[in-house]
Amino acid sequence: MRLTLLAAATAAALWLSPAAHATPTLIASGSLTGTADLSGLKGTLENGNPAGILGGSGSALAWAGGSTFLALPDRGPNATAYAGGGAVDNTTSYIPRFHTVSMALTPNAAGAALAYTLVPTLQATTLLSSATPLNYGSTAGLPAGNGVNAGAPAGTFYFSGRSDNYGAGSTANPANARLDPEGMRVSPDGKTVYVSDEYGPYVYAFDRATGQRIRTFALPAGFAAPNPSAAGAAEIAGNTVGRVANKGMEGLAITPDGKTLVGFMQGPLIQDGGDGARYNRIVAIDVATGATRQYAYDNQIGGKTYNSSEIVAVNDHQFLVLERDGKGLGDGSKAAVKRLMQIDIAGAQDVGDLSGAAALAGAAIVPTTFLDIRAALNAAGISDGKVPSKLEGLAFGEDLLVNDMLQHTLWIANDNDFVSATSGPNSFYVFAFTDADLPGFVAQRMASSVPEPASWAVALTGLCLLGAAHRRKRGR
After folding, report:
1. What is the C-alpha separation between 189 and 118, in angstroms, rounded?
2. 254: pLDDT strictly greater than 60
């Protein structure tokens, strides 16, 4: 992404013929490999996995400026059953965290299958914590009976992936230690990380440097489940309103000006029909005031409903939503539906006072298809059986030269559930697109998190001259 040599930029520009792209085009793919993160945690989790296990890093992906991205695992490894773990859905005291990843893109020679080679490198791991005490569970018979990770440094209140880590009150209680992060964005100044979660659902702000929570955003009351349970099935059975277990706030967007967060529920609320129903809710949050607005989204494609996995802002009123089935690599089946859908909330009705599928039907936003991800990966030689089943991370990145034009980039990542043996590594797919592909696109202005290398000053002069010649080709 960050080009430090004029020759490298020129090589990328000559990779394809000058014809403009009709649709977003895959230009690179790469994987984050390894088994250990950089948290420094020692010891093991309840299921025997290392406390510092690396995996699941595509649950969310956020651009942090330049070639730097933040990759977010969810609540940790729970795909393998362990003794007594059934009481907590086999979750563990894995400490939620985010990884800082450098994404190095190198232009390939003309004729290569893809325009760029991508090499992700793990730079840091940041654990998420609270400045005030949190509620931890004490389920009998589990290896870590008090719900606190045994390898965690003393004196800090870390969040946890274990489902019994909650206290009195509804699932919205911000003192609960349990956290299942699924969406993430970075503030324009690069100092704050916003995270959305499925347990509450919650939307929290964390200090990017320390990982400590600095703010809680209050979500509409109807989103929380009044009666928490450590077992998802019991929690669903014990509530008539609120989010469905494991179908909370899966996605999070931030508008290019950094003023609004937009959270996306993975599935309909219980009062709106619950799992398998048609209308999800979107919540727009004013960062300055905390005020919210709600919108309904029609998540049906071809007569079926799907999991809404992520949302990213095109501008202050248009968004891309990642919709997918659960098929593909990791599921032992063939992927069928992996799509980016485009929506526009301008003029849409605030449905905060509405409840039930029938009431939402007349106000729901109907999306249009922006990109068939499965078809695009197929065209690049990735068969349906090799398309990751859980594509969940989505982010715009830095512009670069492709096809003799300065183009925008769109990044997609997968959640491998910490089981690379069956689900493959954490992979990243980079697409290039023009303004003609996505009219109205506004890039987020982001303070770079990584100092430019010394060679950048030398290359900048040449790139500016080359860029001037190509700006008129952006398709504005």
Report:
1. 26
2. yes
How many CB atoms are located within 10 Å of the residue 95 CB? 28
Q: Is 357 left (phi over 0), alpha (psi -120 to 50) or beta?
A: alpha
Nearest to 176 by CA among 229, 126, 127: 229
Mean pLDDT within 341-368: 97
What domains sit in the chain, N to C, each tagged with a CATH number?
6-471 (2.120.10)
Q: φ and ψ at 114, to 5 degrees?
A: -125, 155
Q: What pLDDT, on a 0 to 100 scale, did the predictor assign at position 22?
A: 54
pLDDT digits (tens, 9 = 90+) for 1-28: 343 333 444 444 434 333 344 589 999 9
**DSSP string for residues in 286-326:** ETTT--EEEEEEE-EETTEE-EEEEEEESSSSEEEEEEE-S
Show Cβ contacts of residue 125 under 8 Å, excluding neighbours closer than 6 positions.
37, 38, 39, 40, 52, 97, 98, 99, 100
Question: How, if at all, do strands 279-286 and 292-298 pair?
Answer: antiparallel
Is 96 buried (19+), middle (13-18) or exposed (0-12) by CB count in 10 A? buried
* CA–CA separation, 61 and 41 (whole Å): 23
Between the CA atoms of 182, 340, 407 and 18, what dihedral angle is there, to the nearest 10 degrees?
150
- Please count the other Cβ atoms lying within 10 Å of the Cβ belonging to residue 347: 7
Helix (H) or strand (E) holding 7: helix 6-13
pLDDT winner (highest mean) among 1-10, 57-66, 300-309: 57-66
